[in-house]
Amino acid sequence: MSIYPPVKPVEVLIHRREDIDDDEWDNFINDSCNGSVFSYHWYLDTIAPNWEAAICYYENGAIAAVMPLPYKNYFSIKVSRQPILCRYGGIIYPQSLYSHLEQIRCISTCILAEISRKYLWVHLYQTPGVWIDNLSSEWQKNEAGNGYGLFREDFAKGNPYNATNKNLYNKAQKMGFKYEIIQSADPLIEILDNLDHKIIDKSKYEVIKALYGAARVFNAGTIHMATDLEKNNIAVAFTLQDARASRLLFLNKGNDSNDIVNRYLLCNVIEECLTKSPMFDFCGSNIKGVADFFESFGAHQFRYQYLIKQGKLVTMMKNLLSTK
């Protein structure tokens, strides 16, 4: 585990995936102030077969910060973009640095400078908890996305669900709806296989199935299911856990017109997850309808930062394509 030394970082190295020790990497993420399940080695291996990491070191060899870099090669251009189903990434700092803002600024400057040398194009989401405010001119500033979370202490103050959710939850209970945590992935896989892939990209759900398999190995995933009395209407949610939160990766809608089984499920998922984690992360959306849905369960909005850098060559290519 890294400690806070009162010295400046001296070196940033880009490590290839095969040179990264799985246990050391995951331990750093667990002990960090802003890491998440989306940065565990098995998660990155599943969603981004090509990834490496920028690691910043102090003179004594202690790790100051890490930054996972999922990448692709387009012709001879190396780019790092946020993969699907990877909500956050960016620079991850040890817990001991949380209140040392000047040290964080120094580290972020070193890491982003090294990435700028190696990558022509970067588009990543910074993990919430640390906002980088000293970006150089080649990095776009003031870009942000919306996340939504509900903390255990807020829930303990009283049920935060709006009247619609409370009424539908009570109605579902009276109608004999059932909620359970299931060990088999069959209901999840069946739902994923039967989705209308003309509307929803099937490749995304192939990744979800692969993630569930990986999460089971590392005891980090849970499948939740809600059904009506006749089991004609089924809703399934898939959550992932890390040291800071339970995170909603997937939630399907049942086939009822008033959305009762879906809302009944999410009410139970939130309560179950908050018994295990200090926060329930809805994993956010900038779409108003989705945001309103999350807020109806008492979710609070938080912001996370985009880290966007593109070289002049990428800008010229985009401009040329836009004129055709």
Notes on the structure:
The structure is a single chain. The protein has helices spanning 22-31, 41-47, 101-118, 152-156, 163-174, 186-193, 202-217, 260-274, 288-295, 312-322; strands spanning 11-15, 51-57, 63-70, 72-74, 77-81, 121-125, 144-151, 178-182, 221-227, 234-241, 246-251, 279-281, 300-310. It has 324 residues and is α+β, with helices and mostly antiparallel strands. Strands 4-5-6-13-7-12-11-10-9-8 form a ten-stranded mixed sheet, sandwiched between helices. The protein has a three-stranded antiparallel sheet with strand order 1-2-3. Helix 5 (163-174) packs across helix 8 (260-274).
Would you summarize the structure shown here?
By secondary structure, the protein is an alpha+beta fold. It is built from ten helices and 13 strands.
Describe the SSE topology.
Layout: E1 11-15, H1 22-31, H2 41-47, E2 51-57, E3 63-70, E4 72-74, E5 77-81, H3 101-118, E6 121-125, E7 144-151, H4 152-156, H5 163-174, E8 178-182, H6 186-193, H7 202-217, E9 221-227, E10 234-241, E11 246-251, H8 260-274, E12 279-281, H9 288-295, E13 300-310, H10 312-322
